Structures
1.
Amino acid sequence: MNLPPRRVGSSPLVRTTFIGVFEDFDSYRTTPAQIQAAPEKLKVRFPKVIRFRRVEATIYGRTEKYQFYRLAYYVAGKRMARSFKSYTEAKTEAERLVREIADGSQAAALTGGQARDALAALERLETFRQSTDRRFSLLAAVSDYVGALEKLNGRSLAEAVEGFVQTVAAVRRKDVAEAVEEFLDGRRHKAEAKDGKRAQLSASYETHVSSWLREFGKTFPATALCDLTKDHLNLYIKPFTAVGPKNRNDRRAAVRMFLAWAARQDYLPVNHRLFEADGLARETVEAGDTDFFRPDELRKLLDHVEAELLPVLAIAGLAGLRVEEIMRLDWADVWRVEGHLEITARQAKTRQRRLVVVCPALAAWLLPCRETTGKVYPPGLQAFGRKFVKLRASLEIPTRKNGLRHAFCTYHFALHANENLTAQQAGNSPAMIHAHYKGLATKADAEKWFQTAPAKQTSA
């Protein structure tokens, strides 16, 4: 207990620390003083001052209320007091203390408990040094500990260490390019169709992702994933100014997918915050004008296309199926449900089954194929693309990306004025239909589109 300083005249008196008197007296009192004091005959005038150089220690005699000799001295700016059973013990200790203090030692300022703690702490530091070959002073250890506690806002150092071990400390160093190859290798099987089933990932999509991520890995040679910063990601996306915002967004999505995987593999800490990089922020993509084929262009395409390719164009334009969905379509799916095309979950882009109404014009175009079996278009997607480009060029019809499907959605919505119905037929969302296909064609144009039947049907 530290008492406020008393004043004598104008000078304050220094506080006194009574070791053991106010701080668990029996624990800190010297061992002889813990034994009941015995009568002692002395010819000493108290208080007795013991001096060495400029250092003094004062011994106070026993009183009726306190049957021990008290030793008082100054060290490190504090007045200390200790109790002894006999004057001889008090005097011996006083002579030792004044010499020790005069030599510059401040150990006498420690209480018994503090001294024991200090020795135990030094022993702990020595054990740590022997096991790790790292040396710390007691002051440095305490300073680091207190400094850490000041930053933890009431949390314990043990909690902070546990959190660190679960995040940063558990991270394994992995080169970016090596991690990219590991990631791609783990996804490769998802782009492979097995046992007649549809692959989990589009082969075309996986090809793009692989190209983008390998390019990402080459951007940071000899760099570990855990060393990446937001600045790295900003620099990566910066050169892609020649491509459109959608392409940049697709690249960002691939990188984000890769980084999320890396965190699950402990190549990145789970709290890495790389997703906050400005370079990974998604850009707003302004929707371009929806371009689609006109009824007279559909007529020219269907009248001049080769027999094998005709069903693909007719289904795409008059039923609105995506070309990729048609490539997965069997003739059994065309005839299974009367008056409808059945797109199974395995065939649909959205992996959701749907039935598409077959309009009379489409039924007429497909009628010659009634006995056909197998795939609707066996040559596949690439062969279709080459032949369709050649056909358009020969007919001088301009390129319109996804023009047949866009035409179906545009004209179907114009004919029925029902975005829910059009969305159900196209395998899309009503919001998408409303946003991209509303008000692009008249009902008259829509009727003309869906009446594009074979010439002999028209003349009949």
2.
Amino acid sequence: MLTGLAFYLFAAVVLVSAIAVITARNPVHSVLFLILTFFNAAGLFILLGAEFIAMILVIVYVGAVAVLFLFVVMMLDISFSDLRKGAMQYVPMGLIIGGILLAELIAVFSAWKFAPNAADNIAVPFVQSAEGITNTEAIGRVLYTDYVFAFQVSGLILLVAMIGAIVLTHRTRPGVRKQKVADQQARKKSDVLEIKKVTSGTGV
């Protein structure tokens, strides 16, 4: 009973917050609703017994991606009124693409067939494997043995994407004072310090 109530609570909050993400007029509020959606989706994964996916959802998407979106939206001087200008001309194309996606989803769900033993698998409660290992340990064994090459390649792709994003967003602004490490290292004591001998009684 308690699990069912928790499921309906998390699912309701996920649906409401997801709708609020796309309907909120303030982009900061949209990001905050997105973070709320991720947290409740993580709760749903915990109810399914997939605690590893839940923690990854919180750590990666909430702790990194969503917070990054929030800081970018809050710190960049973006004129959203200018971005909305001329947006109505893309509405027909958006409706066409949305209609195509809707037709594809309808075709997928209309042809959906469950496996013969799907009901039996759903009725079986979640238990640990015979070896007594957790989901995280089981995923780690598979990930770092059978799929270690794909794991390393995906890490390199993310590194290249991060460097590319930094290069694309880097702007040179005139009049900004920047640190010059070589000049600081080459500076001598005589360039910044001057010693003068003052006779007693003649100082100010």
